[in-house]
Amino acid sequence: MPNHVHLLVAPAQGEELSEIMHSLKSYTAHKANRILGRAGRFWQRESFERYIRDYEHFQNVVAYIENNPVKARLCRKPSDWPYSSAWFRAHNESKKK
User: Fold this and answer.
1) CA dihedral 7, 13, 18, 19 (to 10 degrees)
2) What number is the average pLDDT over the span 53-82?
3) In this structure, is residue 5 part of a structural domain?
4) Does residue 73 fall inside a structural domain?
5) Strand runs (DSSP E) across 2-97, as ranges?
6) Average of per-residue pLDDT across 22-35
7) Total domain count, the chain
8) What DSSP state is assigned to residue 72?
9) Are 21 and 11 a contacting pair, CB within 8 Å?
10) Pick from 71, 70, 52, 73: which is nearest to 61 by CA?
């Protein structure tokens, strides 16, 4: 997405989600600011974490994330968006055939 990120992660034993997000945001902010020739805050402070309750919830979250670029009219179907798990799955399936 051009203005936000959806990320589904499972922290390893002993790792904290807040530390993972801090590292990810710090790294990507530095890279993006360098590319854009800017400095300062890149990401907004807030984030919205949700704990996955069960497999059905997991499937719903994946579908929501993958459908987000379609809803934003950036592509026609989830597998068209090159930065998504739907694209990755579609292209790996085509390699198997």
Assistant:
1) -100
2) 95
3) no
4) yes
5) none
6) 94
7) 1
8) T
9) no
10) 52
